[in-house]
Input
Amino acid sequence: MDITKLLAKKILILDGAMGTMIQKHTLTEEDFRGDYLKDHEFDLKGNNDLLSITRPEIIKDIHKQYFAAGADIAETNTFSGTTIAQADYHLGEEVVYQINYQSALLAREAADEFTQAEPEKPRFVAGSIGPTNRTASISPDVNNPGYRAITFEELASAYKFQAKALLDGGVDMFLVETVFDTLNAKAALFGIAELFNEIGRELPVMVSGTITDASGRTLSGQTTHAFLISIEHMPLLSVGLNCALGAKDLRPYLQVLNKEAPFFVSAHPNAGLPNEFGQYDQSPEDMADQIEEFLQEGLINIIGGCCGTTPEHINAIANVAAKYAPRKLKQELEAAE
Output
């Protein structure tokens, strides 16, 4: 089914946090290595993306839990799936390709199982493309503000490689998410556009930025509106915000996107703010109550959860979202006038 037509009819539900669910398992270094990387010279524990290869049953089960909870869209387990991010673990292109390919396959299998069982509620797979651990706009050296640890070309190449592997694995769309540096996001969009030109077809692309604190700006200093202007040259499926903030604090910035964005609007906030131990305490009910305010205002087309969210959170959000109509695109409102 064409997801654009579906989005015009209903609010779609994105899944919740992959990392939060992985943490519920007591995993060892051996779990991350498996037979595939049992002789690797460097520690791999904590490299969650690898689990799509070494413990695929865990990752597929997490996807299935989110679909069972009401999610329409699953994100692949590839948030750190670039050659740039995986270089920290001394892993190269062969492993990175498999991370993305296998992650996409697992999500695809889970989505297809649920779609077959419930044809009236098709499930989709979004290839998760994270921000990497480098920034193209900010120097990591306070004594040398002109220095950059990465170039635009290097980022674009790495993102294109990731996107190709995700495409080969069967994703329905790409989600460039948790954008803290808009130049990184533009590199991702450039790499994805190059891939589309090469294969002669396009997939929907979602972009989700991160407002890092109460200043209302991304880490690279842009307001929500400036962030939108920087990326709206690309024909996106949706633009949205995720991470860093809970639902309550995200609301004013979603109001900006609602007013200005020519695309569908998405949000996947955290389960509140972390406590002193870095844990997220917000209950599914409290989070759903805060999100209901977005829905009452008609701000949202796609809603899900980020850090700290679980299938219980997604189920509560899905139940609330089912009561509301999706946000109307500016074109629809203008046509109605």
Notes: The beta strands are 12-13, 73-75, 124-129, 173-179, 205-209, 238-246, 264-270, 302-303.
